[in-house]
Design brief:
Structural class: alpha/beta
Shape: elongated
Number of helices: 7
Helix content: 25-40%
Number of strands: 9
Low-confidence stretches: none
Distance between the termini: 42 Å
Bound molecules: ligand 4HQ
Mean pLDDT: 94
Strand content: 15-25%
Largest sheet: 5 strands, parallel
Length: about 230
């Protein structure tokens, strides 16, 4: 899968996708992540990319011209699913991330300032938000999206590991995990994990996941149609 990121601040991405799982996925050819500086496409002599909002108001708005030209150059006549990161988009969910992982090409547009000229929406397929808070730009949301989607690209996670096992995939939060030592500063690993049978361990983990979800995110139980008793 190829992912192009259109941004005014490509330096923010330096090193982010080169290490750990995504670094390996890129080395293996599973992922190809490229950043593009929107400013390089500004056709005015000062390479200006933003301007005052029509109608007045605080802040600046990203101009359509550099974004349109950047998008056209990067897309290059191929098909790609084009996403704008914005707090007014639909919330990114694990279900949507899994669907996005099936595209051959994604193009992510990171907005800055007070937002982008509304006409940019004519070259966007989908608006996505990573949460109901406002950040200074769409770069961090783009990184979150890339990471979240990449986990669903076959082969990106380790050998037998799959994104399906993880938190949220069954609608529940993760059960508690332990590693050695069995006793750390007097804190014992639950007996069942040390000596329990596999079926009992699975049952215990499910119960713990339900409990944790009920405590921390009760709304998730309703959303995935889970019973709490
Ligand atoms: N921003 N989820 C403002 C976000 C955001 C979010 C991106 C900040 C767009 C103009 N994006 N710019 N939350 O806060 O996606």
């Amino acid at each position: 899968m190829r992912i192009d990121i259109l941004t005014l601040f490509p330096e923010m991405f330096c090193g982010v996708f080169g290490t750990s799982m995504l670094g390996r996925a890129q080395a293996n050819g599973l992922l190809d992540i490229r950043t593009h500086n929107i400013r390089d496409y500004a056709d005015n002599k000062h390479r200006k990319t933003d301007d005052y909002p029509f109608g007045g108001g605080a802040g600046m708005v990203m101009m359509p011209q550099p974004i349109f030209d950047c998008m056209e150059a990067v897309q290059g006549g191929e098909t790609a699913h084009r996403i704008l990161l914005t707090p007014r988009g639909r919330l990114l969910t694990p279900e949507r991330a899994k669907e996005l992982a099936a595209f051959d090409r994604l193009i992510l547009l990171c907005g800055h300032y007070e937002g982008v000229d509304e006409r940019v929406n004519t070259i966007i397929d989908e608006e996505l938000s990573i949460g109901d808070y406002v950040l200074t730009g769409g770069e961090l949301p783009a990184m979150v999206l890339v990471d979240c989607v990449a986990r669903f690209v076959p082969g990106v996670l380790g050998s037998e590991q799959s994104a399906e096992d993880e938190s949220h995939s069954d609608g529940l939060l993760e059960y508690p995990q332990y590693t050695r030592p069995a006793n750390f500063r007097g804190m014992e690993v639950p007996e069942i994990l040390q000596n329990g049978h596999h079926a009992n361990i699975l049952k215990w983990r499910h119960e713990q996941a339900l409990l944790k979800t009920k405590q921390m995110r009760p709304v998730l139980l309703g959303r995935f149609g889970k019973k709490t008793e």
